[in-house]
# Entry
Amino acid sequence: MRRRPLPQRARRAGARRRATGGGGSAELRGGWPRAFVLTMHAVRLRLYHHGDGARVAYRELGAGPPLVLLHSALLSHKEWEPAVEQLADRFRVVLPDLPLHGDSEHGRGHPYTIDWFAQVLGGFAAEVLGPKPLIAGHDAGAEIALRAVLGGLLRPARLVLMPNRLHAAAAHPWRRRAWRAAARTAVVPGLDRLLSYGARAVFAPERAIGLSSRANPAAADLMRHAFADVAGNAELARAWAKLARAWPFGPQTQLLGLYPQLHMPVLLLWADDDKLHPLRVAEEALGLLPRGQLRVLESTGFLMAYDDPVGLARELVAFCGQR
# Structure
């Protein structure tokens, strides 16, 4: 069977690894500890082919029980970089880029509904992770993981849900409506390319620093990487328009009746300073989870891994390392 080529960004990532004589990202800057840079150079870049043709780029690091980390909306696997080194000592850490994100494919032929994302995740887990993996997700990644588990597409040994809306409505609904309206204009020829340039301007790297409660300047590189190939990419803009129409933003109250079906251990790992995902929603869900736990990382915001990578890794190891 002929091998399909890697997506453009994944090909460039491979070229960077060859140029630097190792794996991982050559974009890491001097602010990271040298040991962390050397560890990230051991990352292996791979590609998962879903049954409907979707292609998911992912990285692997370490050995041990498989632990997959699913990033939030609009970002990429780089959301987890600050905590990866400590986790790779205990787990085989798997870092996928969700479809439409990072190095993964963004073709127009897919529906981009949350159920479709859940199906892709289920297929990815079956082929890449094996039975009973450890699953952790944040924001959109957590929503997709939860949908896949409740739909019987994924059977993790343990599930970690980091800040996401759970059963509540999305925070700042007017911003969500504005984003949806803007994204949907990409179906109009000519506006798709214009929108791609607008998105690059709106999601400037400096905005990511505000997502860190500690104003970590390294967060700017996270946003810069996530939107590196957006400007001028009309096809990507049209795919985002399809996602904007399909993704549910209203309250997911049906989850309140489904939480009791989660019989595996579930950790709600929350930030105490995340303006998008208040702690009260996690507390409401906790009482309905048969084997739920709630842990809160102090002085952390939306980008928990950038605010407290040591604390994040510690909580994941403590929960996922249990037998």
